[in-house]
Amino acid sequence: MFTGIVEEIGEVTAVEQLTNAARLRVRGPLVTSDAGHGDSIAVSGVCLTVVEVAGGEFTVDVVDETLQRSSLAKVATGDRVNLERATPAGGRLGGHIMQGHVDGTGAFLGRDENGVTTFALPAHLARYVVEKGSIAVDGVSLTVAAIGPDRFSVALIPTTLDATTLGRREPGDLVNLEVDVVAKYVEKLAEAHIRDQVQNRDSGTEERS
Going by CATH, does the domain composed of 104-185 fall within 2.40.30.20? Predict the structure, then answer.
């Protein structure tokens, strides 16, 4: 589990294309200080498993499913990425509960002089995003300030702009999005309840109060 509080900005130092996968090497002195084989590190919001650690760098393999759903398919040597270690049991929940399972990508649209930043929102994710709710953008826990049919905005403070890659984004850049997992579970449970209610109504067995 992660909370969306980025610990450091890392740098991709190598990208190796494999069969239906990719291997990345990332420099991150802080997150590798206590990391070992099998540990989880979120790379721009994507939960990845450490394969090797050496000299302040770590190596991870990215499978095709992850490449298809995230911006890591386009990552290149020299790119900056947000890094966060998995939250330990009993650790502070500084942001919100995140799995590091990216739901899709959006595009950076722009930022005004007050730090209000707007991103494109894919149609299949729009129903999970609500005003004042939580969303993860490139692994950063953020609060939705406003939402439209195909976009949403967040208000970024100077610290967030300086301490994450969001302050370096240019219009058109892809970002990873993870919606609130609680919303997805609620939807799944509600679907079953609504389906049962409809079936009972259609069969004439709906309970009457």
Answer: yes
